[in-house]
Amino acid sequence: MLQQAIEDALRVTKRNITRFGDQFPHVSTGDEHYTLNDNTEWTAGFWSGILWLCSEYSEDSVYREQALRTVQSFRRRMDHKIIFDHHDIGFLYSLSSKAQWIIERDEGARQLTLEAADMLMKRWREEPGLIQAWGREGDAVNGGRIIIDCLLNLPLLLWAHEQTGNDAYRRVAELHALKSRRFLVRGDDSSYHTFYFDPVTGDAIRGGTHQGYRDGSTWTRGQAWGIYGFALISRYLKSAEMLETAKRLGRYFVAHLPEDGVAYWDFDTPVEPGTKRDSSASAIAACGLLEIAAQLETADPERLFFQEAGEAAVGALAKHYSTHGNEQAEGLLEHGAYSARAGDSPDDYTIWGDYYYLEALMRLERGIPGYWYERPVL
Fold first, then answer.
1. Cβ atoms within 10 Å of 240's Cβ, excluding its own
2. What's the chain's average pLDDT?
3. Which residues are the active-site residues?
4. Distance between CA atoms of 260 and 315, rounded to whole angstroms?
5. What are the start-end ranges of the E strands in the chain?
6. What confidence tens digit (pLDDT) does each residue in 311-367 have?
7. Please, what sign has the CA dihedral across residues 376, 302, 250, 238?
8. Is 212 left (phi over 0), alpha (psi -120 to 50) or beta?
9. pLDDT confidence bin for 162, thresholds 50/70/90
């Protein structure tokens, strides 16, 4: 099943290289065609990551050649400072230039990734002690705002610390992770999407949501970001505290899944005929669950739970939500939700869902864990 799913992904990706040219897919909009952009969205890195994963699996050079073209595009984006007023710089450069460094040890790719880490560091706000998610410094609404998605951007800083020995990268990542753990993770192991702080004093104001059902609900993609994000931070910091947080969020996610094993877009949304799923949330969670299992000792009684939960999530996606057999498909997973609350691509392809689905498949089939941290050099 795993090999077949990966082969399907290779075929879709090869067709998409011709379809997309040098543009980057984002989401589809009801017509099963990806909207394309010139490397301006926060999601552009996921296409690059898919290409690198395909390149590692296949001997066909077409995937590597296109992956290199995307890295060149990210070089231009950095040189011209194109749309960096957000925290998603880790999503952009971990899966593009850092992927090239991990695979090929290309020094230019390493330097570009370090520049990206420096760009993310500019979003650190010392007074409230956080990485500002959106907007410019001093923004009246967003100046003291964090979101759970940022946990997946912190590995870029922790990698930069490993590469350079500069403790500032680790300090910022660790402080932001601790703040996220304290304020975004609730006592019942669910999570807030976003939290507001006074940008001057750092005083906590309130939890809320941008894409969830309501402020106190649990947006499933946010919960998935938390599972994987805290697990990756645990790997870098060797932190039992961070790993336990990832496990708490993971147990909650698994316990609240519907019968077919793929999440609705929010765990608290009323379920009725037509309620939207978010296959991308289950794909992200699958990677996080498998990452947790990878950090546990073989004899740990919880290791089998997380491993099997990750495998079950991948299996449910492959069986019920993949585009297997659709020769016109541009996406790998159906029924992803960009923003169901806003009606923005609520039941469509999402390029991040495709990436995490393929990463989870590659973890299980080849032991390749994506591009969030260094691997042993063979």
1. 10
2. 97
3. 88, 149
4. 10
5. 24-28, 34-37, 124-125, 130-131, 145-147, 194-197, 204-208
6. 999 999 999 999 998 989 999 999 999 999 999 999 999 999 999 999 999 999 999
7. negative
8. beta
9. very high
